[in-house]
């Protein structure tokens, strides 16, 4: 029997529902019902079962109801210079654009203004969950976490660790100081949030000394943390890692030697553009997630990641906007970039690896990346209830479209103006329906 006190936690959305069941299968159900109970999907129904008929229902009209999008990689402090410096490669771009900007986050007034803009734009997008890099600055990182908590989005945020190969104004003074600040940050945020979790964030191997990596590995075990970093993004970066870690067999092995490459805990590595065969094997063995960032990989001339190979190998893959190497926050546009990049790789590099489809990139942006957060990114029963309501009426056409075709046009043509509602773990973030 239903309890009256649970009514507010149970509700129904009615509309045109689309969600991934597998990487190859998108289910589309026109004029259907999506049931949420205590933040969990109870299923999609063409006819509303009797047991749910007394609960509140929101009719979204002709809008599309989609799972919330999951961004597995972005840098919040870089949002301020999105769209600038796109004519450089990675290492030059870090030195001339990224590091000077991130150095500003020791100024809390600047951090408050910049992170406020970022958080508001992320809240108004179709993204419901994200893995986010902050900077090395503890107060500004906590400020970002506070703001994201208030947004209602589910995020993982990391204080960045970097004790070498960075300008004096940004480089941490020692491995010991970096580890100490990380512990202070973790102590400060412990138990503070419902929506935000800390994630250990060594920037990448070139910016973290061996001593620091050893200390971070101990901290990871002590606090049972997930980890995020970068992997095999740029050929110059890969060669640099080999110089810094001559004892490693390949880039991923440098993380592995420190116990920082997944296995019995979640790990997400951004880019993964130029893996060795051994690296692919280790990623699959350790369950490492690859955050595919096609815009950044193109903008910074890094290359095209072998995503078809990863999918065929059973490697976990999601999408990342990689602000500000990537130039847009919209994960729909990242999906488009992933399709386009895969076509170029197929045509120019490896014609045995067929291009990605719209169905597949929609999966990567929802259920594929959502798996890093648990049962997230689908409307199948038992999944957390993350949903976005997309009004595609602005995208006019004289054609009579199927629901599947409308979804494809939303992927290719929509922007934040079309996001009319958003729910995260069953909680309404906003709704204009």
UniProtKB/TrEMBL annotation:
InterPro entries: Amidohydro-rel (IPR006680), Metal-dep_hydrolase_composite (IPR011059), Metal_Hydrolase (IPR032466), Metallo-dep_hydrolases (IPR051607)
Domain called Amidohydrolase-related: residue spans: 65-427
Database matches in Pfam families: Amidohydro_1
Keywords: Hydrolase, Metal-binding, Zinc
Keyword check for Signal: no
The protein's required cofactors: Zn(2+)
Name by which UniProt lists this protein: Amidohydrolase family protein
């Amino acid at each position: 029997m239903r309890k009256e006190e649970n009514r507010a936690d149970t509700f129904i959305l009615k509309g045109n529902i689309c969600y991934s069941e597998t990487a190859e299968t998108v289910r589309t159900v026109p004029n259907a019902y999506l049931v949420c109970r205590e933040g969990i999907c109870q299923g999609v129904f063409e006819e509303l079962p009797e047991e749910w008929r007394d609960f509140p229902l929101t009719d979204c009209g002709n809008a599309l109801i989609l799972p919330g999008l999951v961004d597995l990689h972005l840098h919040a402090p870089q949002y301020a210079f999105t769209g600038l410096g796109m004519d450089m490669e990675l290492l030059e771009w870090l030195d001339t654009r990224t590091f000077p900007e991130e150095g500003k986050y020791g100024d809390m007034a600047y951090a408050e203004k910049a992170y406020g803009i970022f958080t508001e734009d992320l809240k108004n997008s179709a993204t419901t969950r994200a893995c986010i890099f902050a900077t090395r600055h503890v107060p500004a990182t906590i400020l970002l976490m506070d703001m994201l908590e208030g947004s209602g989005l589910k995020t993982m945020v990391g204080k960045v660790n970097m004790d070498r190969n960075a300008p004096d104004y940004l480089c941490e003074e020692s491995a010991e100081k970096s580890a100490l600040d990380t512990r202070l940050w973790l102590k400060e945020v412990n138990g503070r949030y419902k929506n935000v979790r800390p994630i250990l964030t060594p920037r990448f191997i070139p910016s973290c000394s061996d001593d620091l990596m050893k200390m971070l590995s101990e901290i990871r075990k002590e606090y049972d943390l997930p980890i995020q970093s970068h992997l095999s993004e740029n050929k110059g970066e890969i060669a640099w890692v080999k110089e810094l870690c001559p004892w490693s067999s390949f880039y991923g092995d440098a993380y592995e030697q420190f116990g920082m490459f997944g296995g019995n805990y979640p790990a997400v590595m951004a880019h993964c553009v130029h893996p060795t065969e051994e690296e692919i094997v280790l990623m699959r063995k350790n369950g490492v997630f690859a955050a595919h960032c096609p815009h950044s990989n193109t903008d910074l001339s890094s290359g095209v990641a072998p995503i078809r190979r990863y999918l065929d190998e059973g490697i976990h893959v999601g999408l990342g906007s990689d602000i500000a190497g990537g130039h847009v926050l919209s994960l729909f546009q990242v999906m488009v970039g992933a399709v386009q990049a895969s076509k170029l790789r197929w045509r120019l590099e490896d014609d045995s690896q067929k291009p990605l489809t719209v169905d597949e990139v929609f999966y990567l942006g929802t259920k594929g990346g959502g798996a890093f957060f648990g049962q997230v990114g689908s409307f199948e029963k038992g999944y957390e209830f993350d949903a976005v309501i997309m009004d595609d009426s602005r995208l006019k056409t004289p054609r009579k479209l199927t629901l599947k075709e409308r979804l494809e046009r939303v992927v290719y043509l929509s922007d934040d103006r079309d996001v009319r509602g958003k729910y995260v773990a069953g909680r309404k973030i906003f709704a204009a329906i």
